[in-house]
Design goal:
By secondary structure, the chain is mainly β. It contains 1 helix and 6 strands; from the N terminus they run ββαββββ.
């Protein structure tokens, strides 16, 4: 999948991460991003929404999700962050591994 600035986005997870009926939606161009620090030129914003079979949001998983963002520009770097309040505030995602 491609973001609005041409970056390639890949999302993957190991078998057993979700129960049957789970829906994963990746939006490479969310309609409302309120943080100008993240929505500035050359930044990539994606929205990953995971819900159960009843449509309730899931925020914890049995295995980690892998989100890979590959830039089309040489030297581009990304700082992964997440928001639990619709993009009002963001928290850095620490490197695991």
């Amino acid at each position: 999948m491609k973001s609005s600035n041409g970056a390639t986005i890949t999302l993957s997870w190991p078998p057993g991460t979700f129960v049957p009926g789970t829906t994963v939606v990746v939006d490479p161009a969310p309609p409302s991003v309120t943080s100008t620090a993240l929505a500035g030129e050359h930044n990539t914003v994606i929205n990953v929404i995971v819900t159960d079979s009843s449509g309730h949001p899931l925020t914890t998983f049995t295995q980690p999700l892998s989100v890979t963002v590959t830039s089309s520009e040489s030297g581009q770097q990304y700082v992964p962050v997440f928001s639990t309040d619709g993009g009002q505030t963001f928290t850095a995602i620490p490197l695991i591994g």
